[in-house]
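In this supplementary section we document a worked example of the pipeline. Step one takes a protein sequence of length 331 as its only input; no multiple sequence alignment statistics are reported here. Step two produces a three-dimensional model, which step three serialises into structure tokens for compact storage. The input and output of this example are shown verbatim.
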Amino acid sequence: MRTILEPLIGLLVLIGIVWGLTLYLQEPEIQYIQGEVDATQVNLAVKIAGRVSDVFVKEGEYVQKGTSLLRLDSPEITARLTQASSARKAASAQKDKADAGARSQEVDAAMNLWIQAREAAELAEKTYRRINRLYADGIVPGQRQDEAEARWKAAEAAAAAARSQYDMALEGTRKEDRQAASAMVDQARGAVTEVETYLDETRLKTPLSGEVIHLLADPGEVVNAGYPVVTILDLDDIWITFNIREDHLAGMEMGRVFPVFVPALGDKTFEVKISYIAPLGDYATWRATSASGGFDLKTFELRARPLDLIIGLRPGMSVLVSRKDLPDARK
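The serialised model returned by step three reads:
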């Protein structure tokens, strides 16, 4: 009897091992495809370095577009603004001076100099004519005549120069000088605008409405330019991401609408629409383990967006879709 049972037991054990290996090696049919909720996250960074003086929001708070999140204290920017403002005032004063031209006192002084030079020239001319008559009568030598003529011509040149100075005072500043002064004002105004722009950057504002999920700076901390300090979650731009092996992509094409359910929301069912399909990198490729009869299978990222607003849906939640709710394209 014992001789008969031992082979029978061994056969049963062998059958059990073979059956177990068959179940282990056989790939079960996938009944559900799992995805994860994701949403747009914007990391906000400061454009200038400074010390955080005030933080106006808290993590978890919902903020509207344009809301001030925090403020930096930057004495360097304030000093540069003072310098730029002073340079603008100086340039404006130079432009006003150029536009106004010479002062009335300067014009009067130039006129008096011209009158004095003109009268001196007239006197030199009269003296020359008298000396010339005396020279003609042989009373004075020729040297006196030459000296009188030289003084007359010099007086006329001085009068002409004085008249030119008077005309310049009447005309005012040259056109080129006025243009240069105006350009200096524009340059100084641009410098002030630039510094004021940097000063505005000391107050970080959100470019979109959303929820503050990360706040990485506290009052008193020094942050560098480009350092992300606040992360905003845009719950109005939400989608579901699925990573699906290509042999399970049947029936999932762009624009396909299918139902999903969210365990975290009490297994409520919602409709979503496929908006994005793209292969993942080689790291996500399923390699064939057999040299014959097998092939590499790539993994695709699929994104689907809810057709309607889903109250309570948040990034990180699991989403399930049943294979029976997806039409099989291979049929």
